Amino acid sequence: MKRIKITLLLSVISLLLQAQVTIKPAPQSGFEERIRNHIEAQKVVDTHEHLMNPIGITKSGMYDFTLLFHHYADDDIKSSGMSKTTFNKLLTDSLTVLEKWKIMEPYWDKSFNTAYNRVVSLTAEKLYGVNEINEKTVVELSEKIQEAYKTDWFHTVLKDKCNIKFVINDSGDRSFGDKSMFRYTKRFGYFGIDSRDEIDKISKNRNSKISSLNDLVETLTSEFEEALKNDFLTVKVGVAYSRILYFEDVEEERASEVFNTIYTHPNKTYTFEEVKTLSDYMMHRIVELAKKHNKPVQIHTGLQAGDGNYIENSNPTHLTNLFLKYRDVNFILFHGAYPFGSELASLAKNFRNVYIDMCWLYIISPSYSERYLHEWLETVPANKIMGFGGDYHNVDNLKM
Fold this sequence. Notes:
Blueprint: H1 2-21, H2 31-41, E1 44-49, H3 54-58, H4 73-79, H5 84-90, H6 97-111, H7 115-128, H8 138-148, H9 153-161, E2 164-169, E3 182-187, H10 196-206, H11 213-229, E4 234-237, H12 252-263, H13 272-292, E5 297-299, H14 320-325, E6 331-333, H15 341-350, E7 354-357, H16 361-364, H17 366-379, E8 385-386
Parallel strand pairs: 1-2, 2-3, 3-4, 4-5, 5-6, 6-7, 7-8
Helix pairs in contact: 4-6, 4-7, 11-13, 12-13, 15-17
């Protein structure tokens, strides 16, 4: 009898647990296709690209199949063994298409499996009708790319192929494309001042005399206000490639001491540890300007493209003190913070002013994107998750 009671109790518990997770009836047959059709019909806001002027592409040495490799796929080609010098040679016009492929082929064979390179294959297939990239097809693929760029290719890909409403482009070049299709982000320097020469460069570029910390802040303010007249949408901070994302809230006096030390020693270059105080101070000034003018701040978090970086520098938890201090500034954390997906979830869940942006993420790893999107949808309000952005130089690979 005791055994029967235990069995019945376990059965009841099992039913209760099932009831807890079954909150809606199972969807009717065909729901996956209905969801896919709905998504494909939606207009897309592309939150982040680095699109290059197509005229520049047609005049470059990568006006062939290497155009599809030069951004992100090149990281895995190099990771498989090709030197940077050799890859850069491929992007010149000193070699024929077949000569380039002969150099590329062994490294492609080693790295075709990665998501970066899968995008190249899919682009060739879906956009240019070339089912496999090999010695027999690279000339044809190159010719099709060249023919495409003789048309209004940006319009074709962005509007017709990708159904994009508008793109936020991280580029200083505004001379190309349908203006209704583009919005812009703006980067501000002031993070890498490690010598008097860097101060003098800012002075020259901004046509201002900078001999004190106050002058530096005034120059930043002037640059920000000037950029506002040129209608930028967001502030972009990409310094996770060169420093840790912890920006201490330092006093003006401490930052001024660092500035004065740099300024009065014109022939010396300082280490990051020696100038971090000044870099931190300027970050807070940038965020204050974003707050004043109601501009969101996009921040690179997670994986840095290329090689030679410290991944821990880009952990989004380093930014927590900014989120706490600037409650009225919206911070958009890029790239799903790969590989810090759960840390990102906790930040976006606990801070009203923190948003998740998946741009570039599904190009890095589709499986990570799917896995963490499940977690984010369980933990973060849906309005705080931005799903689309290729982070590409060339428009072609956006289709994939």
